[in-house]
Automatic annotation (TrEMBL):
<protein>
    <submittedName>
        <fullName>Butyrophilin subfamily 2 member A2-like</fullName>
    </submittedName>
</protein>
<dbReference type="InterPro" id="IPR036179">
    <property type="entry name" value="Ig-like_dom_sf"/>
</dbReference>
<feature type="domain" description="Ig-like">
    <location>
        <begin position="41"/>
        <end position="135"/>
    </location>
</feature>
<dbReference type="GO" id="GO:0005102">
    <property type="term" value="F:signaling receptor binding"/>
</dbReference>
<dbReference type="InterPro" id="IPR007110">
    <property type="entry name" value="Ig-like_dom"/>
</dbReference>
<dbReference type="GO" id="GO:0009897">
    <property type="term" value="C:external side of plasma membrane"/>
</dbReference>
<keyword id="KW-0472">Membrane</keyword>
<dbReference type="InterPro" id="IPR050504">
    <property type="entry name" value="IgSF_BTN/MOG"/>
</dbReference>
<keyword id="KW-0812">Transmembrane</keyword>
<dbReference type="Pfam" id="PF22705">
    <property type="entry name" value="C2-set_3"/>
</dbReference>
<keyword id="KW-0393">Immunoglobulin domain</keyword>
<dbReference type="GO" id="GO:0050852">
    <property type="term" value="P:T cell receptor signaling pathway"/>
</dbReference>
<keyword id="KW-1133">Transmembrane helix</keyword>
<dbReference type="InterPro" id="IPR013783">
    <property type="entry name" value="Ig-like_fold"/>
</dbReference>
<dbReference type="GO" id="GO:0001817">
    <property type="term" value="P:regulation of cytokine production"/>
</dbReference>
<dbReference type="InterPro" id="IPR053896">
    <property type="entry name" value="BTN3A2-like_Ig-C"/>
</dbReference>
């Protein structure tokens, strides 16, 4: 059986670019009448916002985003509805046995004029970016049961909400 043997080192290129693949056939055979299909396993996934929590003490919403299948290592950014960068903790990046990266991050958000938030994962070296936008319902943010009484704490309305 003939096998295509290639380098185990990553090959970085842009979609549509020409590239020379350092490969050989084993056992040595003429490839004049053959076609080699080059595929990229684990193509980067669009970010998935897979968790929403309510912090009842601060009446904030915690969102988590994850995206897998990246090479080289990507960066993850959170943006508000106006495209402004949100402050989030450092992302967690894990390199798998296939040398592809999975990146995840959590951000705590408060109610804004627009409750739209975007998780963007990008790899600038190869000009690749994926993003997912989520709209958080107003019901997930604080409302005061007695707005005239300042000592009354803010309460969070908790409703079933599915991402």
């Amino acid at each position: 059986q003939i096998q295509v043997v290639c380098s185990d080192r990553p090959i970085i290129t842009l979609v549509g670019d020409d590239v020379i693949l350092p490969c050989r056939l084993d056992p040595a055979t003429s490839a004049d009448s053959m076609t080699v299909n080059w595929t990229r396993p684990g193509a980067a996934s669009s970010p998935v916002v897979n968790r929403a929590e309510i912090n009842s003490s601060s009446c904030t919403v915690v969102l988590q985003c994850e995206s897998a299948g990246w090479y080289p290592e990507p960066e993850l950014l959170w943006l508000d509805g106006e495209g402004k960068l949100l402050s989030a903790g450092p992302p967690e990046t894990v390199r798998g046995p296939d040398d592809l990266y999975t990146v995840s991050s959590r951000v705590t958000v408060e109610k804004r004029h627009s409750n739209t938030f975007t998780c963007r994962v990008q790899q600038n070296n190869i000009n690749q970016s994926r993003e997912t936008r989520i709209d958080v319902p107003d019901d997930f943010f604080p409302t005061s049961s007695h707005p005239d009484l300042s000592p009354i704490p803010w309460n969070c309305k908790i409703k079933a909400w599915r991402l």
